[in-house]
Design brief:
Elements: E1 27-29, E2 32-37, E3 63-69, H1 74-92, E4 96-102, H2 105-113, E5 120-123, H3 126-134, H4 147-150, E6 153-154, E7 157-162, E8 182-185, H5 191-206, H6 211-223, E9 225-229, H7 232-240, E10 247-251, H8 252-261, E11 266-269, E12 273-275, E13 280-283, H9 285-291, H10 294-302, H11 307-315, E14 319-320, H12 323-328, E15 330-331, E16 337-338, E17 348-349, E18 353-355, H13 362-371, H14 376-382
Helix pairs in contact: 1-11, 2-3, 5-6
């Protein structure tokens, strides 16, 4: 079987701007792209943190925080950081600067574990945060530090297809047809790609396939992958800007951003089953202690659960964890194809069966079986 794997060197920034999300200045470091949000005009590098031994800054200078996140959260944190800066200054009478870093979640986790100094991480899954914890940088029990397993918002995996759905792609079984070209990132570097893989696995399993049959179906699906980017945003760029493939396996928010940015050019197909994606947040305790930012870092993550922040998360097409806010954005779907964002802003389609990571025994077991060196994904790749 001829392979069609193409690896991108790094995730490419898709130019998608949400109304009201503000702007950011992109630069580059080893971990991906960065941007700084500030309530004044200061422009310091995150490497300029001083070891104060107490809450950083002081009343006359801003506190500095670095948030290392994953690809599709760029627009979300551009908006959230502005909200948090206003909140923090009003509460404490002190300015705070937030530097963002974005890239494939797995790659970002390794960068932090290997020395990129992050005060907080907001990564695509618990397993990536665990990589940082295993490096001795995050204290035990990080999933219990904040509400809902330290997952202030969730998402799921959907399909993005071209207008009119010319290949008639409606569910996971359509992805194993010979005439379908797929775009998805690489599970070795992207947390979103792991969710994609597991959602597909659950579908074929739910069809009554044995594990051997599921593995064969997954192998066939990945043989149809035309571009295997390093991160979710790079995969979106390959599909939307470079016009590669027939279908993008996408985070829900990435799909809606494309629908918003390119009206009439794309459609979202919600498959019959998918997976509840739970991005995980954590204070990087060792770094925060070094920088003297423990309290500010914890408050930064805690405020993600505020009603104001939950609204921003929903407006950026993440599923909020607060039920009252969540309910405001649910609509009754007449079909599982979404061609436009509803005028009333209700975009959450609940007409889908979602599994979660517990179905796979948790992230430690899922990584060992599917994504570790020599595990199922490597076996598929090598064939």
């Amino acid at each position: 079987m001829k392979k069609k794997w193409i690896h991108s060197a790094a995730a490419v920034l898709l130019s998608i701007a949400l109304a009201g999300c503000g702007s950011s200045t992109a630069g580059s470091v080893d971990s991906g792209s960065t941007s700084k949000s500030s309530s004044d005009t200061a422009a310091q590098s995150s490497s300029e943190h001083e070891d104060t031994g107490s809450e950083a800054g002081g009343s006359d200078e801003p506190i500095e925080l670095t948030n290392v996140s994953y690809d599709p959260t760029r627009e979300l944190y551009a908006a959230y950081n502005e909200l948090f800066q206003e909140h923090y200054e009003a509460e404490h009478g002190q300015q705070i600067e937030i530097t963002q870093s974005h890239g494939g979640s797995g790659k970002q986790a390794l960068e932090v574990a290997n020395g990129l100094e992050a005060d907080v991480v907001t990564l695509a899954l618990e397993g990536d945060v665990q990589v940082v914890a295993d490096a001795g940088l995050i204290d035990d029990g990080f999933t219990s530090e904040f509400d809902v397993d330290s997952s202030p918002y969730t998402s799921t995996i959907v399909f993005l297809v071209r207008a009119g759905n010319p290949k008639e792609i409606y569910d996971w079984n359509d992805l194993v047809r010979d005439d379908v070209g797929i775009i998805t990132p690489n599970p070795k570097t992207s947390g979103g790609a792991m969710w994609n893989y597991l959602a597909a696995w659950y579908y074929f399993e739910s069809q009554g396939q044995s594990e051997e049959e599921v593995l064969a179906s997954i192998q066939k699906l990945y043989s149809n992958v035309e571009v295997l980017d390093s991160g979710a945003r790079g995969a979106t760029t390959s599909f939307v800007e470079n016009q590669q493939g027939d279908v993008l396996l996408a985070w829900e928010n990435e799909a809606f951003l494309s629908l918003q940015e390119y009206p009439g050019e794309y459609e979202i197909v919600v498959p019959s089953v998918s997976i509840l994606c739970q991005p995980t947040v954590a204070v990087v305790d060792e770094v925060a202690r070094k920088h003297g930012t423990e309290e500010a870092a914890a408050e930064y993550l805690e405020y993600l659960y505020s009603d104001e922040a939950q609204e921003i998360e929903a407006q950026n097409f993440y599923r909020p964890s607060t039920q009252a806010v969540y309910d405001k954005y649910v609509f009754t779907a007449e079909s599982n194809t979404i061609t436009v964002i509803p005028a009333d802003g209700r975009w959450i389609n609940d007409n889908i069966t979602l599994t979660d990571i517990s179905h796979f025994g948790g992230w430690t077991e899922a990584r060992t079986k599917h994504f570790a060196d020599g595990a199922y994904f490597d076996q598929i790749y090598e064939q």
